[in-house]
Specification:
The protein is mainly β. The protein has no helices and 13 strands.
Amino acid sequence: MKLRILDYLDDIKEFNGEAISGKLRCTCGNHQFEFFHTGRQTKGILAPYIIRKNKQLILRAKCVCCGEIIDVYNSMIDGTNAKTQEESHDFIPFVIPKIEKDEFEVVIKYNYWIKQFKENGEYSNLFEECFIYIIENGKEGNALIEE
């Protein structure tokens, strides 16, 4: 199955045939998003900002320019370890309280087994790990999620 959000990635880079990364981009071209999730928010010091709650995590982005909604990550359908569970739709806004920021630019990274890297010539949704990092001052900062 083709990587679900491939059409929303910009500046895609491959690493040794085992990983890819790309910047999240809306179809309108914007890179700034508000994020909403079904997980639990941490302080983000030694762990990612968002972790699973009740064994599931859905991360949704809303473009601050045009309002388009993108389901960025869904633990029930994404990756090789996806486990279907009863879906929760209680989305919580992600905010970094100490700086009161709620709009972010992110880079998404996928690690693959080499055999599953591409399927029919396209990036696959069968990735082993997904990492989403907030871009701070033009560089990767803290992890939003590490799944």
